[in-house]
Amino acid sequence: MSAVDRLVLLGRAGLDTITALGRSGLFLVNVMFGRASFGNGWALLVKQLHSVGVLSLAIIVVSGLFIGMVLALQGYNILVGYGSEQAVGQMVALTLLRELGPVVTALLFAGRAGSALTAEIGLMKATEQLSSMEMIGVDPLKYVIAPRLWAGFISMPLLAMVFCVVGIWGGAMVAVDWLGVYSGSYWTNMQNSVQFVDDVLNGLIKAVVFAFVVTWIAVFQGYDCEPTSEGISRATTRTVVYASLAVLGLDFILTALMF
Amino acid sequence: MIRKGPNSTMTDVSDYIVDLQGVTFRRGQRVIFDGVDIRIPRGKVTGIMGPSGCGKTTLLRLIGAQLRPESGSIWVNGRNIPELGREQLFAARQDMGMLFQSGALFTDLSVFENVAFPLRVHTELPEDMIRDIVLLKLQAVGLRGARDLMPDELSGGMKRRVALARAIALDPQLMMYDEPFVGQDPISMGVLVRLIRLLNDALGLSSIVVSHDLAETASIADYLYVVGDGQVLGQGTPDELMNSDNPRIRQFMQGEPDGPVPFHFPARDYLQDLIQAEKDA
Q: Name one GO biological process term (chain B) (predicted).
């Protein structure tokens, strides 16, 4: 392959990437600001909130519990060397609220709900359900995509909060009930050091941003996929890979800006 | 009613429900249609025939504006479809019904809810009236008894009939059938052939049947177009086309394996190919 050929390939890859970004941007604008939804919009949203949010609860709760427990265990082992094991509560809470809550929830959400959204929409496209909806005179962006997008936006930050709460409780189980840290210092140190705006709100902002990015990537990959079984499998993989990388990259940027 | 649009001559709308004028469409480098003119008469069943991959389904998607032509105009009921905005387009589509090859039923809805879907989103009819209309439509396709089943419990032929009931739920003026006979056993094939003709005449529809099943399409169509190589190769009543002098049309209508449309995909000389294989071995 000559140098010119390589240059051509590079140029084409660049153009493809920019075109895809443009397409996904237009797609998002159409979904969010298109004409008003149908009368049963609420029913559709509630159904999606259930499948995207409620059904993700189990994995979020179990993961949150174990991560909180591991944090407390590791934190205790290190802090006890300095005689400051009372600080384990604030360490668990700050780590969860600032970083692990939003990030791990977003990664789990991309794997559990994001991949399901992509596969579902992709399969609807492959079986011509989206086309037939268009021919019935119903805009699939409004009827299929918008409820899923909003369900993701709404449920992921809530899931992140559940994750943090369960993690803190799991930390207390290990530190207080098992390792014998005084429960008063576990909770009081936490109360004293956790700031609402700095820690809780910033963590929540992270979760909202991640929810937006993960759900957008998931529904766009489904809608834009090649309507074959191979195309759907590639789109599902892309959802998880792109969403995870975007979450981790954005987390660094947001952390640098916030703290 | 007389209308005039860009690149179009004056046409009496009442004669033709769809009027394609100089439509060009390409997919990448490949030209699918090259300045094609097709007119679909109102109230009739029109067959669009041609070999696989000649763009028959593309034609339906152009009429339904799921694809946009590179040039040319597509008049449906006096509206130039490629020029419509998103909202006008969705309104225009309510006059069209389309039966997809796969049926394309919504897999999360029951048979009843699939047929009720267009009524629920486009009308504000009370529930008991929706129920009556759905049962009427399902009765027309003979599946009233299957209303509580889910799509994955139906056979391929039944799926297509439910999809047909859904497509006619809003009483469209134009019905488009995309390869309705593919993969059907003789019984459901016969049922579909009868239904298409019956619905067209009883409901006063205009129908476009895209197919490569010669006998079935010729048996119900009032008028036929044969397309291929991006052109309209011929048109006329089924009898006219059967007796055509054009060798390409004759090859297609008689089902001859070789002729102007070659049996062999372009390849280098057969003997050379075999000798080369021996050399390589």
A: lipid transport
Mutate to test the interface with A, among B102, B125, B210 (most CBs of A within 10 A): B102
A35 at B interface, C-beta within 8 A: yes
Residue with tokens 């916030």: A258
* A108–chain B nearest CA distance, Å: 26
Cα distances (angstroms) measured from residue A163 to each of A90, A206, B195: 16, 14, 57
- The Cα A11–Cα A14 span in angstroms is 5
Chain A residues with CB-CB distance to B120 below 8 A: 40
* Nearest chain A CA: its distance from B80 CA (Å): 17
Residues of A in contact with B104 (CB under 8 A): 127-129, 131-132
Phi-psi region of A137 (alpha: psi -120 to 50; beta: other; left: phi over 0): left
Which parts of B143-246 fold into alpha helices (H)?
156-167, 186-203, 214-220, 238-242
Q: Is B152 left (phi over 0), alpha (psi -120 to 50) or beta?
A: alpha
Domain boundaries, chain B: 2-243
Return per-residue pLDDT of chain A as tens, 259 residues. 788 999 999 999 999 889 988 988 888 888 887 654 555 678 888 999 999 999 999 999 999 999 999 999 999 999 999 999 899 999 999 999 999 999 999 999 999 999 999 999 999 999 889 988 888 888 888 888 989 999 999 999 999 999 999 999 999 999 999 999 999 999 999 999 999 988 999 999 999 999 999 999 999 999 999 989 999 999 999 999 999 999 999 999 999 998 8
How far A130 CA sits from the closest chain B CA (Å)?
Answer: 8
Cβ distance of A137 and B166 shorter than 8 Å: no
What is B2-243's CATH number? 3.40.50.300
Q: What residue has token string 């052939």?
A: B193
Asked if this assembly's ipTM is beyond 0.90, the reply is no
Cβ(A150)–Cβ(A208) below 8 Å: no
Q: Where are the beta strands (DSSP E) in chain B?
A: 2-3, 11-12, 16-27, 30-41, 45-49, 71-76, 79-80, 96-99, 174-178, 206-211, 223-228, 231-236
